[in-house]
Write a structure and sequence with these properties.
Layout: H1 2-14, E1 37-40, E2 43-46, H2 47-57, H3 66-78, H4 82-85, H5 91-116, H6 125-137, H7 141-144, H8 149-156, H9 165-173, H10 182-200, H11 208-234, H12 243-254, H13 258-261, H14 267-274, E3 302-304, E4 306-308, E5 311-318, E6 328-331, E7 336-340, E8 353-362, E9 365-372, E10 375-376, E11 383-388, E12 395-399, E13 405-406, E14 409-413, E15 416-421, E16 425-430
Parallel strand pairs: 3-6
Antiparallel strand pairs: 1-2, 4-5, 5-8, 6-7, 7-11, 8-9, 9-10, 9-16, 11-15, 12-13, 12-16, 14-15
Helix pairs in contact: 2-3, 3-5, 9-10, 10-11, 11-12
């Protein structure tokens, strides 16, 4: 009897339709659900969610279908309910593709802007198109689809230089070193000739290219003469330069040709000295000048610090802090870089001499010392000590001479920890 009851129950389980009874009336009939559920990877997905997952999985940011497939996946995802969206297990992939699309659009804009940066009538238009075409051709198929149709048309079309060999010859023959536009004209003539050579392998008539080469040598000579005066102006100091020194630099500037004078970038400083902006000493004070270093770091340049085992050192000449506005970049072979602010931000701007910098690292301890004429110095802006390749969760603390912990400013940028301070200090790396 018990066996018969079990068989009856099994038959009901095996045939679900036997449990179904028709509704009493049509009013009781509800709309059947349109959602079909699929079992996969221990999760239940309805068909809408499964469709989105499949659409995301076929997106490839290397192929021309990238944009259309990404749009299709986004549209399908946005049509899901908030509950359904929670079950899209590869949403992070979709999000990454959206970020890639932003980068591709930016890249396409840069290419479009480069092509548009030179007018079609300009002599260097042909070279600009070739350079932009080479850039465009380096893109993958997906990236190319973001470049607008007109830009793609130009880059894929046949193009020839906006000049002829006769025009180039005429330009070279008309070059005049006394014209203020001489340097620009030489550059334009060279650009046109290079474009023709690349397109037709054309050659200038005998003697014409020699004229162009001679003009280019004059340009180099002009720049060298202007650079000498630029350096002489930069060496002027309200504290050490006399009226005679200023007059000497003024005479050197006036000896330049008008073409050379216009490329001296700091002539305004000379004008300030000549117009009496600074009260200058009447006698030379060279005998009171400090013994400056011949190997000192230069402003605006990257300088490798001298090394003795784990000790690094560098020097900075302080001649006239007020006129120096560029930073000093000091590098080491121990994953550390020092960025020293411009000398114009020194707290004591009335001192000249040589800044002595010492940087020592022993395991997790870093000591940074900086003096001017053997006295500690301070800047109004932050000195930056950059330490590379530390764990992201590492922290840095500063300690005083008694070992007490001080407030430390630092932040993390990628694989770099950047410590900020206005004066010397001792720092400790805390690895977690």
């Amino acid at each position: 009897m018990k066996n018969k009851k079990r068989l009856a129950l099994l038959s009901l389980v095996a045939i679900p339709s036997l449990l179904y009874s028709a509704p009493a009336s049509a009013a009781e009939v509800t709309e059947p659900s349109k959602i079909a559920y699929t079992y996969n990877n221990n999760y239940y997905y309805n068909s809408n969610v499964w469709n989105v997952i499949q659409l995301i999985s076929i997106i490839d940011d290397r192929y021309s279908s990238f944009q259309t497939r990404l749009e299709s996946a986004l549209k399908a995802y946005n049509n899901l309910t908030e509950t359904e969206k929670q079950y899209v297990t590869n949403y992070d992939v979709l999000s990454n593709h959206q970020h890639t699309r932003i980068l591709y659009r930016k890249l396409a804009s840069q290419i479009e802007e480069k092509l548009a940066s030179v007018e079609p009538t300009a002599v260097n238009y042909y070279e600009n198109v070739l350079a932009t075409r080479e850039w465009f051709n380096s893109l993958n198929a997906a990236q190319k689809t973001f470049v607008n149709a007109e830009t793609q048309r130009i880059l894929s079309s046949y193009i020839s230089p906006n000049t002829t060999i006769d025009k180039v010859v005429t330009k070279i023959q008309l070059l005049n070193s006394s014209r203020l536009s001489f340097h620009q004209e030489v550059e334009a003539a060279r650009a046109e000739y290079n474009a023709l050579r690349k397109f037709t392998n054309a050659y200038l008539p005998y003697g014409t290219e020699q004229l162009l080469l001679e003009a280019e040598r004059l340009v180099v000579k002009d720049k060298a003469a202007a650079k000498d005066v630029e350096n002489a102006i930069a060496a002027l100091s309200p504290k050490t330069s006399t009226i005679k020194d200023v007059q000497k630099v003024k005479t050197a500037f006036e000896a330049l040709t008008p073409v050379q004078q216009q490329i001296v970038p700091n002539v305004s400083i000379l004008i300030d000295f000549v117009n009496g902006k600074y009260k200058l000493p009447t006698q030379s004070v060279e005998n009171t000048k400090p013994n400056f270093s011949n190997t000192a770091a230069l402003p605006g340049k990257t300088t490798a610090m001298s090394r003795n085992r784990n000790d690094y050192s560098a020097k900075i000449n302080v001649t006239d802090p007020g006129v120096h506005t560029e930073r000093f970049i000091l590098t080491t072979k121990s994953n550390m870089t020092l960025i020293i602010p411009s000398l114009s931000t020194l707290v004591d701007k009335d001192t000249t001499g040589v800044i002595e910098i010492q940087l020592k690292r022993k395991l997790n301890n870093i000591t940074f010392k900086m003096t001017l004429n053997n006295k500690p110095i301070e800047f109004e802006e932050n000195i930056e000590l950059i330490i590379n390749n530390l764990p992201k969760n590492a922290s840095i603390i500063q300690r005083n001479d008694l070992g007490e912990k001080l407030h430390t400013n630092f932040y993390v940028d990628g694989n770099r920890h950047i410590v900020q301070a206005t004066t010397s200090g001792t720092f400790q790396i805390i690895r977690k």
